[in-house]
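Lab manual, section 2.4: Encoding a predicted structure.

Procedure: take the sequence of the chain (558 residues), apply the prediction step described in section 2.3, and record the output as structure tokens. A sample record is shown.
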Amino acid sequence: MMRSKSIGFRIVELIQQPIKGAKGLSFYFKINGQPIFMKGSNWIPADSFQSRISKDKLQNLLYSAKLAHMNMLRVWGGGVYEQADFYELADEMGILIWQDVMFACAMYPTDQKFLENIRSEITHQVHRLKHHPSLALWAGNNENEAALRDNWYDTENNFTLYQKDYIELYIKTVKETINKEHMSGIFVSSSPSNAAQSEKEGWIAQNPYDTKYGDVHYYNYAAGRYYNDDYPRSRFMSEYGYQSWPSFSSLKPHTISQDWNEFSEFALYRNHHGQGQEQINSQIRYYFNPPTSSDPASNFSNYIYLTQINQAMYIRMVSEFCRRSQNYLYGDEGMTMGALYWQLNDIWPGPSWSSLEFSGSWKILHYYAKRFFAPNMISMAVESGNLTVYIIQDNNRNLQSTTLTLYCYSWASFVPQSNLKIPVQLADVVSNRVFNENLNKVLEKLNCTDQPRHFLFASWEKSLYSEFILSPYKDITTLQKPNIEVGLIGEYPRRALVLRTDRIAPFVWVSSDIPNLIFQDNGFLLKDQQITINFTTPDNRPLSVRNFTVKSLMDIYL
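Recorded output:
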């Protein structure tokens, strides 16, 4: 019987070397000799029943990752080894795979029969997957080094025994089998781990979350997290996340009107993350007023909209934080070379950390990912009381002398109130800090010290821009409900919506009754009186503006 395989050639290296002027080791990937910042997410099973996952579904999910400029997905160790189509599609789309071995969040047995079974399983999976050019790294497990060191499962009284079992399973069995069957493969013992430093410390590091080594998982659900500068400046962030709810249209067929409340029995039961609803709600309360519709369906839909805004803003801030830090040291920390948020896809329609719904539809977060993972971008932050502006260029770097413009807008006007022209000379690095000045002094120069009435907007080379909000939205008294008119132009397959507004509108969200329609942009700040949003339709069906609805933040209030 004839068999064929498509193969590709590339050189993948994991660089762990001393960093001049800092303690610790680097942790970054070189692809064909070039250091690459890994932008992506974590992959979980696309359905509870593997037989229901078609190649088309995998293709749609992976293509959405590619459209968001992702170059790496981590296949989580609590899921499954994916079917061949998944890896073949990743090969074709240029998406690298961080492959966890299927162990997660537990202590496992090490009797001889179990270990023999594991050797057989690993041998089979390595033979099945090692020819894929997308396969970049094997990780021995998900979070089990951290679980053992930090006593997640009450193991400290028998630590020596569990340490011996850990080494027997993940080092003497998993690692040795992978090294034997995939001699050119890259292996780390766990995720998170200190990688080479964990090995030096006998495979169970004193602090598996040490930001000076390896990769880190980070979760902080405290309220008021958007514009912080205290995220861990790790070498590689392989998990970080925040929950949101999927669209009301995905939940409505499976619910009744009594369920349409964030405190309902349904909502509390459906959220399987402990205290998940309270964590979502506390963050929303910090930045927004609650929606005020008297209709239960509308009010719950508006609540879902706020959860998605909240998730998108939080993940945007951490992702941009990582990208800003990639060629800077902060003491011994920094030099971050990867950001893989938790999680890309979903296994059912319910509240989760995903940026894609179970159906494949894009949440607000996925549109944000398309922006914060774009090859070139502007990122603004407040660091130690200073307003900082970074220009990030993955490639095709413009190193000429140029000018960045920082505008101050009033929420009540389309015309900038004032601006600063900032001369820019970029160094030949990916992340350039081009502005760093005390925030209050900057606001004084711009005559916009009344922060709830204003926002900042940075523009460079006409194509890169970013907004910076100066206060929680609930404190902005000059925002009013906009009148947004929708027009439809173009012919199949390239069509566009024209939006016209009489007021500035935050978080403009366009939805359609056409399934899984992807827009050029969505969930954005509409600061101009008219914009055009392109989209592509799957077929030549007739369309009208009635196929689309538009929502903005002030529309959820009476």
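Check your result against the sample. The longest helix spans residues 296-324.
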